[in-house]
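*** Backbone structure tokens ***
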Amino acid sequence: MIKILYTFLLLTVIILSNEKPTLTIYTYDAFAVSWGPGPKIKEAFEKEYDCNVKFVGMSSSIGALRKIQLEGKNTKADIVLGLDTNIAQAATKTGLFAKHDLDTSSLDLPVPYTDEYFVPYDYSYVAFVYDENKVKNPPTSFEALVAMPEDFKIVIQDPRSSTPGLSLLLWVKEVYKEKAGEYWKRLAPHILTITKGWSESYGLFLKGEADMVLSYTTSPAYHIIEENRTNFKSARFNEGHYGQIEVAAMLNSSKHKDLAKKFLQFMHSETFAEIIPTANWAYPVVKTKQGLPEVFETLTQPSKMILLDGKIVEGHRKEIINEWLRALER
């Protein structure tokens, strides 16, 4: 009996020691879904590091952060992926994240960005996307947008739960300064609805519910490459466009810190960078030998990237959101 028990325990130890570690990554739904970059990145990383990768998708990356905050030290997440530089400072203040100790100085970004905790992996520019078959004269500025006909409608995202939604607020604030609230009051009649996340907004737009949707300058690339449709465009605004640099960080509570750090390093590999343009529909932060797909040359090129320092954003975020809420009260 003792021999049988010993053999059983020995087999159990052997089985457990041979189990592959599982890296759990909280992110937004569009990253984790079958048509997003998640499955390809999972396959490539698992092959290289002999492990399992589990992406857990939320309605938004801010939703992923909120989940981690609720779970605290008991969170199952090893990494959160998909926050941007606007919200990274707020995430850092939670004390839940670990420093990465990686050299990010050589990354290919339109503006300099370094952070002890968060690592960039792609970027794009916030923009309004439209169907040129329906919108013949798209607005070329924020003033032109409010001057559109009364029945011209847009769909945007809530800045409290969506990173592009917050980027829009900061974009308007940077352009209009102390008159931002007045601008929102003028824009309000054109806002069809405000959704929790990007996917819901874009879905409404594709169903023809609105004339334009808050998205990215790179969004039309999806329709060109995947659907062979060239009628979707992003409106180029004279004021420049607000940038979104997406970032990831590992949790202090992670039981797989070494593996998590390897994943953060992997985000700067050519393998990862080649997946991003045609799966996450954004610019990678690493130049590859094959370069970007030719389609990217036809996309809207903003005159400049507007991007506020994360510390400034965190210091004024609540104030800017409250200004927006007051302006949209009806």
